[in-house]
Design a protein that fits this description.
disordered N terminus; single chain; Rossmann fold; alpha/beta
């Protein structure tokens, strides 16, 4: 039983660190990538609710499947039904939500998977923190730069209507800001661009 805990602060995260050492595994990321015959990486989809993050991630997963590449979609809503079900939408809970997401994504990349993260992740600091846990060529930030009025017009689940009515507090884009990415690898600003064309752009990052 360890009695002393360090607290590591950085990037808005407070992480208790028990004195343990990383256990090195014989079958590591490089071994799994060699077995697969391709590199694992993460596509980090960010944008307002209704921008199409999950739709594009799902379409990319289908294309990767068609060419024999293993992938998995980490959808923000789906994660809140499971691993993040205990979290609300307070500032602290949102930060913890993102911390869990990028650590899961990191483990999946280490397991040799092409990982597709679809989450609003509204703040630059959170996305930078996520990026810092990957090698330079492993993190592809995809910004779906779709205007609020378009996302609100789509509103497939009626979330914007509820936010406007005050039923949802701190909804990103209405009661909460969204910080546009500074240097994403991919920007999609044409809301009429066919999903297949977006996928073609993303496939250029597949080795």
């Amino acid at each position: 039983m360890y009695s002393k805990i360090d607290v590591v602060k950085g990037g808005g995260f407070i992480i208790p660190k028990i004195y343990v050492d990383r256990h090195e595994l014989s079958v590591d990321k490089n071994a799994l990538q060699n077995l697969n015959g391709y590199k694992s990486k993460v596509f980090w989809f960010t944008g307002l609710s209704g921008a199409g993050k999950s739709t594009v991630a799902n379409a990319l997963a289908k294309e990767l499947y068609n060419i024999g590449r293993r992938s998995y979609v980490l959808d923000g809503d789906n994660l809140r039904l499971g691993i993040n079900a205990d979290l609300g939408f307070s500032e602290q809970d949102r930060i913890e939500n993102q911390r869990r997401v990028f650590h899961i994504a990191r483990m999946m990349v280490d397991a040799g998977m092409i990982t597709l993260v679809a989450t609003i992740s509204p703040f630059q600091e959170e996305r930078d923190m996520a990026r810092s846990h990957f090698q330079t060529d492993e993190f592809i930030e995809v910004f779906l730069d779709i205007p609020l009025e378009i996302c609100e017009a789509r509103d497939p689940r009626g979330l914007y209507l509820k936010a406007r009515a005050g039923e949802i507090k701190n909804f990103t884009g209405i009661g909460r800001p969204y910080e546009k990415p500074k240097n994403p690898e991919v920007i999609v600003s044409d809301h009429e661009m066919p999903v297949d064309d977006i996928v073609k752009k993303l496939m250029l990052f597949i080795d």
